[in-house]
Structures are given as structure tokens and as C-alpha cells.
Design brief:
- Helix content is 82%, strand content 0%.
- The chain is mainly alpha-helical.
- It has 2 domains: 44 residues, no CATH class; 54 residues.
- The radius of gyration is 29 Å and the shape is elongated.
- It starts with a helix and ends with a helix.
Amino acid sequence: MNTFANITNLTMKTENQAWRDLQMHASAQLRADFANRTLRIARGPAAAEWEQLHTHAATQLRPGFAARVLRAAREIPRRLTLSEQLVFGAATAAVCLLAVVYLHAHNARVENERNLAGWQQLAQEADELDQTL
């Protein structure tokens, strides 16, 4: 009779039980409104929220902003050629693309670091739990 095998089989968790425990622990870490917040973000802002953003943005501009922009545009001494406009547009698009790529990489790195820290903590807790069993 193999007593050691019988004892370890009684104290060791099955793989499915370990995954269920991990899933339960991970779900316990989420805030109660996690699903609602995720769906709300995925759907984007409602029309009323866009109106609030528009109103807030309008208050950030000084009075007469549009008139100053139009006056400055009219004072440009010559019209740009099509090729100059295309080059300017391409340069603007390149700067915007670089900004988007940089911000995405930065945000992805921060999110990865946050997730890794969470998983490391979870792994430590799992190790501690295994040691107590």
C-alpha cells in the first residue's frame, strides 16, 4: 500500500480546481461595476456627454478666436501650391501618427507593468497558499 501517494492525492488540488480557485481570486479583485464600466467605455460617450464636452471646450477658447483665425488666414501673402499643401498635410499626418504611436506604446507599457505586478502578486499568493497546504 502506497501511503504517501494516498496522502498527497488527498491534499493536492486537481488542475481544474486550481484554475477555478485562480479564477475566483481574480474575479474577486475586480470592482463590482467592472462589467458596466467596460461596456460603457466600449460604447463611447452618449450624445449628452458629447454636448457637455463641446460646451466645455468652447469655454476654453477666448472670445473672438474664430475671427482672429480667419483674419490671420486672410493675411497670408500668397496661396500655397497643391504640392506645398500636400507636403504640409503629409508632415502633419506624420507628426500625428508619431504622437499616436508614442502614446500607444507608453500606455501599453504602463498597462503591461500594472498587469505584471498584479500577476506577480497573484503568483506569490498562490505560492503562499501552496506552502500552507
